[in-house]
Write a structure and sequence with these properties.
This protein has one domain. It contains four helices and no strands. The chain is elongated, with a radius of gyration of 17 Å. The protein is an all-alpha fold. 63% of the residues lie in helices and 0% in strands.
C-alpha cells in the first residue's frame, strides 16, 4: 500500500517526519503541539470527506470489499465509515437489542 500513496499524502507524511526530527526537544514539542491542534480542528472535515466518497461508491453499487481495497482500509473500517462512525467499534456505544450483521453487498 505504501507504493500507492498519493503525492499529497506523501508530502504530509514527510513533513511529519521532519517534525519528529527536530533536534531541540522543546522546539519539537512546540511543533508537535501545533500539528496536533491543527489535526484536532481538521479531523472532522477529513472524516466527512472520506465518508462522502464511501457513500458515493456505495450508491454506485460498489461492494464494501472493493471500496476497502480502493481506500486501503479494512472492510470493517468501510462499514464503520458508512455508518458515520469515525472511530473503532470499541469506542462507540452499541445499539440496544440484537446484534446486527453487515453484508458485503
Amino acid at each position: 500500500m505504501a507504493d500507492d500513496i498519493t503525492e499529497e499524502a506523501r508530502q504530509v507524511i514527510d513533513a511529519l517526519k521532519h517534525v519528529e526530527e527536530i533536534g531541540d526537544p522543546v522546539q519539537r514539542a512546540v511543533a508537535i503541539s501545533q500539528v496536533l491542534k491543527d489535526y484536532d480542528e481538521r479531523a472532522p472535515k477529513l472524516r466527512e470527506l472520506r465518508r462522502e466518497a464511501v457513500l458515493l461508491l456505495r450508491a454506485d453499487g460498489v461492494s464494501y470489499r472493493k471500496i476497502a481495497a480502493q481506500l486501503g482500509v479494512s472492510l470493517g473500517t468501510v462499514q464503520n465509515i458508512e455508518r458515520g462512525h469515525g472511530s473503532a467499534w470499541g469506542t462507540k456505544a452499541r445499539a440496544k437489542g440484537g446484534s446486527e450483521e453487515a453484508s458485503d453487498g
